[in-house]
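$ run holo --ligand "6-hydroxymethylpterin-diphosphate" --emit tokens
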Amino acid sequence: MGPALRITRDALTVTLSGLSADDIALLQKIFLVSDRPDRPGFEIPEPGVFTIRGSAHQLRICHERLSRHPQAPRGICSLFSSQLDNYLRSDYKIALRDTVLDLGSRTHVMGVLNVTPDSFSDGGRYASADRAVEHAREMAAQGADLIDIGGESTRPGADPLSEEEELRRILPVIERLAAELPLPLSVDTYKASVAEHALKAGASLVNDISGLRFSPDMARVIADHGAALVIMHIKGTPRDMQQDPVYTDVVREIGSFLAEGIEIAVRAGVDREKIMVDPGIGFGKTVEHNLAILDRLDEFRTLGRPILIGTSRKRFIGSVLDIPQPDQRLEGTAATVALAIERGVKIVRVHDVAQMVKVAQMTDAILKSVHSS
Ligand code: HH2
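-- output --
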């Protein structure tokens, strides 16, 4: 006999927020009429917020019911349908300089290239331009889809670096890689002027760990160059972010920060279709926060943009497994990568490219078989 019980994770939650007391009363009137055991779950977790949890099919029915109601505010109906459509969307394509990343076809791997003397896991290994270029070639041969080049370590407690020194480290590397490698290049910086030089030198994507918050010109620079953008969440600055970070609901607060970041970018002229979001593992988060973010990653899908994540070798993996050396955290990283892909992440930012390409391929194959069975 086969298994009698199957646990599926197909329940989705739509969160309608910013509602008036009248809106909530109306939603209760529309939805809380039946107490059939198979009806979706409705909750009012806090004043002004109404959540509906159920399968995609149940939520579609709820949406139809709401839309048909003569008094239902149009704003609530469209918030409902956009969250549901965003959640279910997976066919993202990001147009870069001479490539299109087809993120719906498979998980993409971003290889980390730290041209720094002090990064937390590989500081000093690729600090010279020659060593950096060689390492990028190696990651390309191992199957990386793009290379993320950073000149400033943003590990907890790190001091900011001058613009001149950051450029001195990364520009020669970007120029050489742009001429030689067929892969798109991303620049990991929160400084608009550094991003501008990097884009001119051949980068096509800006990975901003401040989510556009540290440099007022960043969004405009990206818009002017028609570049792509990763908006990452951070609480505080690298210097102070790990000093007792506190959240009421870590996933909801990060979601709001990322949604606001998307609007800042779009208002400045960045193409919405070129934006990716990242919850910023380790950037102002405790071990428990990082674990909860990973478990609830799918909730960021309602933002309607592809999710990128950087768990690679990070300290929370060392804490769970009691492994102080970052380069010994390969298996822990692999577990996070597989799970993140299952939850809907499209790009993983990693140091160990050869191994994580295989983890991604294997996880993609399992998920494909689940969806086609
Ligand atoms: N993590 C680091 C740096 N940049 N960018 C994004 N989008 N997401 C991340 O999680 C992320 C990032 C930190 O890792 P690393 O570059 O290896 O270390 P360091 O900052 O010490 O150079």
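-- notes --
The longest strand covers residues 108-114.
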